Amino acid sequence: MVSPPPASAFDASTLKIVFMGTPQLAARILEILLTSPPDQLRVVAVITRPEQPRGRGLKLESSAVGSLAEKYKIPVLKPAKIRTGDFLAELNSFEPDLLVIAGYGRILPKEVLAAARIMPINVHTSLLPKFRGASPVEGAILAGETESGVTIMRVTERMDAGPILLQRKLPLAPDETQGSLKAKLAELGGAALLDALTLIRCGKLAETEQDETLATYTAPIAKEHAVIDWEADAGHIERMVRAYNPWPIARSKLGPDELLVWRARRVSDQDESIGSAAAPPGTLVNLKPGPIVKCGEGLLELVEIQAPGRRRTAAADFMRGRRVAEGMCLGE
Question: Tens digit of pLDDT for each residue in 82-96?
Fold first, then answer.
């Protein structure tokens, strides 16, 4: 535990903050900041990723954080590169007390971190040192964790390795999805950030170094990670379905067609007599009342699925409409 600096080290007036973030989760945290008492903090600028092509027309659109900042008429910087002299000069012109980072998506160099008079802090959506990296929410669900939370940390040049300033925990529901957990963590993260800022203003925020022996890491998620391997056990595939909902969505093939799996449930041990033990993984061993798939270990019932270009639908209704028969196989 590192002792906090004396209160005299900080100016007790309004904190000037430059916020750095990109996705919807970060936008909600920014919104919580923007609706906090104005005599305690002021967001003087927002830094987000450049516009990206989205939708069928591939029209360039601002990030969720950029759109929110524009709504509140806050200066927005969207640098393609963050190591240029021009960007650093513009950042320093805001004279921020704090950089507050949430889902910005880049490792920041020391020149950027040094722009904060007090310190750069990050809202990380895991209980560090577990699940460092780009996909901590997905990582917690995939690992079968029973709790998650947020960590407010001082940012260093090493990814998610800086000292912990404050943590808040929450339990994971049995049916927790990436989407539901991110929504909860955005609210929790915003509240935890406000608590941390209050302690910073009072000079009472202590630092705790992370235990490197407990560190685990997550990588960026891509669509290919969402392809179901039916050789895996049913519990893992069920967690995978929840971890990749609403993006990139767990998927498999039924014949030539791709199926997106939005919801699934592991069949209980008492019901595992369904179907043939000799059936290869991926086999539809039962269709009533819902389609059940043989996995490398255990059985998985498909609850809600979607064909490309179609609406999400109950898996049982989909199978009846396609005249699917028991014994057909999912996957390549």
Answer: 999 999 999 999 999
Alpha-carbon span 93 to 142, nearest angstrom:
43
Nearest to 165 by CA among 125, 212, 122: 122
What gap in Å lies between CA 155 and CA 107, rounded to an integer? 10
Closest CA to 249 of 276, 214, 221: 221
Assigned token pair, 289: 């009342």
Would you give the DSSP letter of residue 220?
Answer: -
CB neighbour list of residue 201: distance below 8 Å, 6 or more residues apart: 10, 12, 15, 40
Pairing of strands 15-21, 41-47: parallel
- Angstrom CA distances, 79 to 47, 172, 235, 305, stand at 8, 36, 42, 39
Cα angle value 102/148/314 (rounded, 5°): 95
What tokens were used for 152? 């407010």
pLDDT digits (tens, 9 = 90+) for 229-257: 999 999 999 999 999 999 999 999 998 88
At 256, the amino acid letter reads: P
Q: Which of 190, 156, 220 is nearest to 68 (CA)?
A: 190
258: number of Cβ within 10 Å:
13
State which H helix or E strand residue 3 sits in. none
| 3-class secondary structure, 283 | strand
Please list the residues that pair with 77 across neighbouring strands: 47
